[in-house]
Amino acid sequence: MRDRISSIIVQELEIEDDELTSTATFEDEYDADSLTLLAVVARFERELGIVIPSDHIGRLTSLDKVFEVVNEFSGTAPVV
């Protein structure tokens, strides 16, 4: 699932696979805005069945943080 999550993020940020690092901040390094993060969350729900409450979207600041939040709300074994 980790690869699928990364793939969704790469597609929504419109970057190359090798540009995504675990600690780079989406806003500062990739110019992501709140609409981009909403698109990511919508795809997680639609494609992976993972529902992230809207009040937690602000926590999605880097790939590491995304994995942390997904682990919290996936209801399955950790993706990390």
From TrEMBL:
This is Carrier domain-containing protein. Residues 1-74 form the Carrier domain. It comes from the Bacteria. InterPro entries: ACP-like_sf, PP-bd_ACP.
